[in-house]
Amino acid sequence: MLFWFIDFATNIHRRETKFIYLSVTEEVPEDLKMTDSHNKIELKNPVVAAILAFLIPGAGHFYQGRTFKAAIYCFCILSTFFCGMALGDWKTVYYQSEPGRRNLGYFAQVGVGLPALPALIQTSRYNKSVSPANLAQNEADANYFESRSYHGEMPLEAPFHGTLLDRGDDGKNVSGQLDGYIKLKTVPGEFGTEITGTFEGTLDNKPISMLNLSDPVGIGLPLGGDPQRSLECAVVREVNGRRTDTGHIEGSIPRPFLNWFEMPLTNRELDDVNKKLGKRYEFAVVFTWIAGLLNLLVIWDAFEGPAYGRGDEEDTKPKDKTPVTPKS
Amino acid sequence: MSIPLLFANQVNAVVYLIPLLAVISLVYNSTRYEIPQVIIQRSIRFFFTAIIIMGVLMTLLAVLSWNL
Fold first, then answer.
1. Which pLDDT belongs to residue A13?
2. How many of the other CB atoms lie within 10 Å of CB of A286?
3. Helices and strands (H and E) in chain B: how many
4. Which of A24, A66, A88, B39 is least surrounded by Cβ atoms within 10 Å, i.e. has the fewest?
5. Would you call B33 an interface residue with chain A, using a CB distance cutoff of 8 Å?
6. What element of type H or E holds A211?
7. B44 is in which domain, residue-wise?
8. What confidence tier does A141 reach under pLDDT thresholds 50, 70, 90?
9. Mean pLDDT, rounded, of chain A
10. How far is B47 from chain A (nearest CA, A)?
């Protein structure tokens, strides 16, 4: 409303002048025809305005001084786009470049400009981190578990949330929800480099003694569409003087923001999000599509002006004014 | 499924559609007109027209799917 008020207040004189001009002349001059908005609205440099409108919805109109419309476009389109992303657990905008798996929806989403463009960079990063064979099958996690390239990331320290299934010192089965901190590192072992580590935290919200962890360890890709990165490893205890696998933990550690935002989803991640959100995920995707497509109209408006220019005065113009006789 | 139940089942979807329709009507009409007052008037008219059309279609579909 503030933008509308400012725009209205600053342009009211110009509008009134135009109304009077229209009403006192018999013929509408060429430069004030209804659809010829170039001459009625200061479009400045239309190309610059269109580029700005593409990058940030409303920025092109702000550049042209059309603040009311800039406010409408910026608020409506960005809120629709980000609502869509939030409704879909921030997994609605991504680009799959692999042939046969391209998501055409991204071409609608990219219309919104800067908020959707990081997906292109993220796809490029993602494709570099996954082997072509597994990328074709869209089973990136499998590739990572098999290749053990996560050895290069050690030592690793991160908050961990997951489940424990173990046999305690007294021989009884122990299971429940784990919350705490995990530390993993590589050590030279009998058959090459091995991973060992510890978990400290709570089991079902009750503090437990430190768990010793060991190979086999599996960690998801550092890059992925989910903010959580899967992790599983064995729990070892001293049994009769020997280190023995007695159970395992399975859960996730967080990914840094730049490692999951607008990253391509694997088939498994897509299945998970559909299972979790159901119809809401489809609505969320549609929101982002519509936001991108609406911005195409906005870009055109910034470039060419509105369809009816200021010719919509017909709705507000008083009808009882009599035209003045044209000058000879 | 009875018509009231059918409508109740669709309420969740309608919650998402109403703000989306408001945004579409506002942005679409903003690209057609320039004067704020006209934009708002036309947007309101567009919004309610679309609501009525969708309501009629939904009712029609509910009636056609009666006892299915």
1. 39
2. 20
3. 2, 0
4. A24
5. yes
6. strand A211-219
7. 3-64
8. low
9. 79
10. 14
Number of domains in chain B: 1
Rounded to a whole number of angstroms, the distance from the CA of B1 to the nearest CA of chain A is 20
% of chain B at pLDDT higher than 90:
60
Which residue carries 């490029």 as its tokens?
A124
The number of beta carbons lying within 10 Å of the beta carbon of residue A40 is 20
Cβ–Cβ gap B34/A300 under 8 Å = no
Whether chain A has a CB inside 8 Å of the CB on B45: the answer is no
Task: With a cut of 90, say whether residue B26 has pLDDT above it.
Answer: yes
* A303, A5 Cβ separation under 8 angstroms: no
- pLDDT range class, residue A31, cuts 50, 70, 90: very low
Chain A: closest CA distance from residue B28 (Å) = 7
Is B36 in contact with A8 (Cβ distance < 8 A)? yes
Angle in degrees, 0-180, between the axes of helices A67-87 and A279-304, rounded to the nearest 10: 160
Which comes out higher in pLDDT, residue A11 or A187?
A187
Task: Using an 8 Å CB-CB cutoff, list chain A residues near B31.
Answer: 297-298, 300-301, 306-307
Q: Which two tokens stand for residue A77?
A: 């389109």
Structure tokens at A94: 């991504």
- In this complex, is the C-beta atom of B21 within 8 Å of any C-beta atom belonging to chain A? no
Q: What is the DSSP letter of A45?
A: S
- What average pLDDT does range A302-323 have in this prediction? 65
* More confident site: A10 or B40: B40
B37-55 mean pLDDT: 94
Q: How far is B63 from chain A (nearest CA, A)?
A: 24
Query: B31 touching A, CB under 8 A?
Result: yes
From the list A56, A61, A105, A106, the residue with the least C-alpha distance to A78 is A56
Q: Does B10 touch chain A (CB under 8 A)?
A: no
Q: Which of A95-109, A139-153, B21-35 has the lowest mean pLDDT?
A: A139-153
Contacts of B18 in chain A (CB under 8 A): none
Domain boundaries, chain A: 148-259
pTM above 0.95, yes or no: no
The three-class DSSP label of residue A260 is coil
**What's the N-to-C CA distance of chain B in angstroms?**
7
Q: Is B51 on the interface with A (CB under 8 A)?
A: no
Alpha-carbon distance of A158 to A196, in angstroms, equals: 14
